[in-house]
Amino acid sequence: MKLENGLRTAIENEQLTLHYQPVVDLQTSKIIAVEALLRWEHPELGFLSPIEFIPIAEKTGAIIPIGKWVLETACRQVKQWQSIGFHDLSVAVNASIRQVNEKGFPMAVENILHETQLNPRFLDIEITESLMQNDTISGVVFKQLKAIGVKISIDDFGTGYSSLSVLSYLPIDRLKIDRSFVKDMLEHSKTDSIVRTIIDMGNHLDMKLVAEGIEEEEQREALRQYGCHFGQGYLISRPLPASELEVLLREQK
Ligand code: G
Ligand code: G
Ligand code: MN
Ligand code: NA
């Protein structure tokens, strides 16, 4: 109840911030994108993870203004990084089911892209696979988003309940291999086979593959060899405040 009330005023009280985790090209190690990850600095409880408050925000509807704030802040930030020389940098933004299903979500995305002047192809909307069960997201929304020109990723791929058939009829650009697979792939040969199979499948479907949760050099190397295009994880960098992420960007120029 208390969290609920605070959430409504978190934006105006400037308690929300975004951290950014770099996504690198596994062949070149160059940062090609950042994933925006929301943090709420609660006046009494300190920094709260989205896991703790997104479900409440979904229930109360606060997710709608919060989701817009996240999109707008992330797009503006990446546009700014592009303008100082990181021309091809993309941004991935997590969207929740209620947000995507809200009437006017594609229009809101379009408006934010217009306001921030970010080229749509640099925005990647991540939708968690577990939220796609039972066709909870209408194919129409996907098509509208594609018409705008943004990219669509399936987050936490392999852990949800969606059937593989959605991959054939929804316009999906990227699969993000859930970090539970990456975590176990070196120890369990069956998990390693699953990772390779996801990568092969994604490649056959002309999708890009992003591995999450890379913590060890051997994982990075195996994923690279298997043909996974991109990766993120603590081995490369934790999610960072914008100013610190900018330092990483400058270092690789
Ligand atoms: O960084 P990490 O602990 O913060 O993220 C925890 C979970 O919260 C992840 O599943 C991530 O996808 C989700 N998440 C992070 N930022 C956002 C956001 O802006 N919106 C939504 N809906 N989920 C987010
Ligand atoms: O569900 P989603 O992929 O959006 O979740 C992102 C979450 O994963 C964030 O909480 C982020 O902090 C976390 N994360 C990113 N890299 C790593 C990693 O290498 N190891 C672990 N354990 N978590 C990670
Ligand atoms: Mn994500
Ligand atoms: Na994920």
From TrEMBL:
Domain EAL: 1-253
Name of the protein in question: GGDEF-domain containing protein
Native source species: Sporosarcina luteola
First and last residues shown, out of full length: 268 to 520 of 520
